[in-house]
Every structure is written in C-alpha cells, then in structure tokens.
Amino acid sequence: MLDSWHDGPTKSAIVEFVSRAVDSVAPEERVAVFDNDGTLWCEKPAYIQLDFLVRRIAEQVAADPALADNQPYTAAATGDLAWFGDAVTKHYNGDDSDLKMLAAAVLSVNATITTDEHANRVNAFFAEARHPILGRPYTTCGYAPMIELLRYLEASGFTNYIVSGGGRDFMRPVTTSMYGVPPERVIGSSVGLIFHNGELLTTAQPEFLNDGPVKPVRIWGRVGRRPIFAAGNSNGDIEMLQYTTAGAGPSMALLIHHDDAEREFAYEAGAEGALQHVEKSGWTRASMRNDWRIVFRD
Predict the structure, then answer these.
(1) Would 241 disulfide with which of 69, 249, 253, 263, CB 3.0-4.6 Å?
(2) DSSP 8-state symbol, 264
(3) In 90-243, beta strands by DSSP E
(4) What's the confidence (pLDDT) of residue 98?
(5) How far apart (Å, rounded) are the C-alpha atoms in residues 106 and 170?
(6) pTM value?
(7) Domains along the chain with CATH numbers
(8) E strand or H helix at 256, and its extent?
(9) pLDDT given for residue 72 in this prediction
(10) How do residues 86-117 score in pLDDT, each as one tens digit?
(11) What backbone torsions phi and psi does residue 228 show, to the nearest 5 degrees?
C-alpha cells in the first residue's frame, strides 16, 4: 500500500483520510481530482504540451520564415523552450504579456482539423518525443507515487478525475495508459468545436482556460459533485483545493512540493501562494525529496 511513499506524516495523513472517507462517505461521493502538470507528470523545463505545440509552431516557421521575427515563433525556431515556460510563470505572477502572444499562436496551430486527426498528432508526438533533460520518453514521466495514489484511491471506492490547465484533447489520448483515467474523466482547457459532415472540427476560438477559479466551476459543470480529495502543485490549483476542503465531512488537499533537484527539479516559482496556504489552510504538503521513495518507474 503506497509502497513508493516513505512512511511519515504525509503518507499517514493520506491513509487516515482514506480510512475516514471509506467509513463515512458514500462511494458515489468519493470524488478525487488531480491537476496534471507538475502533479501527475513532469512540467519542467517546460510543459509537455508546450513541446508538442512548439514543434507545430516550428513547422509554421519553416513554411513561412518571416514569422521568426516575432515571438513565440522566434523561440520555436531556435528551440528556446524556456521562453514558453517563462511566459506561463509570468502569468501566475500577474504578467500576461507573453502569454497573450503565446495564446494567439497556440490557438492557430491545430485549427480546422478533425478531433481524430488531432488525436493522431498527439499519439505520434508521444510515440517519439523524449524529455529534453531527463532523456525519458514523455510517457514514462508520470510520477510513480501519484499513479500509485490513483490506484489506492480507486481501490477505496473513489472516482478519479484529472482537472488541468493543459489541453483536454492533448491529455485524453494518453491518460488511460499512463494513469488509468479514461478520457471522459479528463477536464482541461479547450477550444471551440464545430460539427461538419459527420465530424467535429477544431477551431482557433478558445472555449475554456481551465485554471485558477475556473477549475471549481468546471468540476461542478462536468461532475456535479464537490470533490473530497484534491491534489495540485501550483497557484493555479489554489481554488480547486479550497473548493474541495470547504465542504462538510472528510476532505483532503495535497500539495506537491518540487524540492528534489537530484531526481527531478527543485522550484517554487508559480507555487509561492499555494505553499503559503499549506499551514494556514490545513493542507498536506508532499515533499518530493522526503516523501517519495522513487519519482519515476524504470
């Protein structure tokens, strides 16, 4: 049971919470929600989806070199993944200047294709892409302790959902094989779709940016229940954790702390506010360095 977690206060808190939930909460009310980037899989040096999108943007630059005069096309053409990661971090710190440029480009790269074609592009990406620093296939960059936690909750009658700021249709092709979470239980950011000749086509129109206060709204809209367990790692997860722990009865908020520079990465940028909430809100902090026996499965 949770063998990839070290014995200690964090593991004990999880086990005790699950025991209380099993004793006092009906199975249909045992809803657990997990952020994805930085919570279930690696998000540094940049989000995995950004690598996918950068490759698509670079293809656009190759077709029209003049695009390279402006961001994010400049970064894509030179392979500067750090610029993309910095744009998202700046967003969490209140500066959306780079994110707006990024969003405009991102919305265009996979527009006007069928949802099946998009899934094929995603599957082709995951079939060959590797983490640029860890050297592992992205499909093996899921955190072993968190995948084990998913199975533990599932065995205790919980229904697990992924609630991410990442693209819904980018995650869906791989969440079953990586996490055992089927596509219908993936809630993420999305673009508008249109129906044409029996197919659903993507558009360049944003539908939802599933981040911050939008997460609880989308959970309720998709699930119709308040979760009793939530796991996240960043400022964008604060509202989801607050919503989870504001209900009556047993609840638990787990915040993953990236403090292991040897086995993964150590950083707090984009998570400062969430870390401040741990003690004052009664959340549980999971130290990657101290609480996890392993980070990835070989």
Answers:
(1) 253
(2) S
(3) 159-167, 186-196, 199-208, 229-232
(4) 81
(5) 13
(6) 0.92
(7) 9-43+136-291 (3.40.50.1000), 48-118 (no CATH)
(8) strand 252-257
(9) 87
(10) 787 787 678 888 878 887 787 778 888 999 99
(11) -115, -5
CA-based nearest residue to 294, from 42, 1, 3: 3
* Mean pLDDT of the residues in the chain: 94
Low-confidence ranges of the chain (pLDDT < 70): 85, 92
- Give the SS3 label for residue 284: strand
Q: Estimate the share of the chain in helix, then strand, then coil, as percent rounded to the nearest 5.
A: 50, 20, 30
Distance CA 26, CA 250 (A): 11
Instruction: Give the separation between CA 205 and CA 60, rounded to whole angstroms.
Output: 19
Tokens 């899989």, located at residue: 41
Q: Cα torsion at 278, 279, 281, 282 (round to 10°)?
A: 90
The Cα 264–Cα 39 span in angstroms is 13
Per the structure block, which two tokens stand in for 276?
């401040």
